[in-house]
Design brief:
- The chain is of the alpha/beta class.
- Helices cover 43% and strands 19% of the residues.
- The chain is built from 9 helices and 8 strands.
- The chain has an 8-stranded parallel beta sheet with strand order 7-6-5-4-3-2-1-8.
- It is globular and about 55 Å long.
- The relative contact order is 0.15.
- The model has no long low-confidence stretch (mean pLDDT 96).
- Bound molecules: pyridoxal-5'-phosphate (PLP).
- Pyridoxal-5'-phosphate (PLP) binds next to strand 8 and helix 9.
Amino acid sequence: MGVNPINIKLKENLFNVEEKIEKSLLKVGRKDKVELIAVTKTQPIENVKSIIDLGVKNIGENRVQELVQRVEEIGQVVDYHMIGHLQSNKVKDIIDNIRLLHSLDRMSLVKELNKRSKMRNKVIDVLIQVNVAEEMSKFGFKVSDVIPFIEQVVGYEHIRIKGLMTMAPFTDDELLLRKVFKTMYNLKEDISKRNYQHISMEFLSMGMTNDYEIAIEEGSNMVRVGTGIFGERY
Ligand SMILES: *Cc1c(COP(=O)(O)O)cnc(C)c1O
């Protein structure tokens, strides 16, 4: 078999990201693990298959249609993560296929998720999306709205809140990034201490290509990396 040059590049990039993840953990003396979610949006199927061959176990998509297509093409040999804004009328299309929804951002979505998972006799795992910097362009709750929201969701038995997710501002301002990630970490700790039923703070999904090392230093245990693995999107 011939050597595929794209595979070599992907292999290098993936190795590099995995190495940086380990270095960031070491730097702050963490002994736990970080899960890497490869964000495959807009990537040709060959690239997605390549990184799965290279050992990637988690695939993230931000659009329902692409996620459904990945599942059809690849099957349940990896875990799928819905990381983008989800319209209520599309819940039914993904509910059987995802391990985790990272983008719970409103009450109306809770109702639809609960209804659909009840119909299937299952429980759906979700993360609450937080818009720490309150950017107009982003979805998610303000920090101060998260706990009141959780108190509303506690009664929905077919939804299990497993943690929090954020997209930090796109900036090189390291201090600002640290502040955002620290705020998330503290919020997670605060929620954990309240011991809500059916709610665990297992996952802190934060860190993308631009900022995943800082996010890990500040306590992230799930990073969502696209460009860092595949190169610039076209
Ligand atoms: C695209 C995307 C990512 C990955 O972004 P990169 O900068 O390419 O690593 C992570 N999370 C979400 C929600 C995204 O939409």
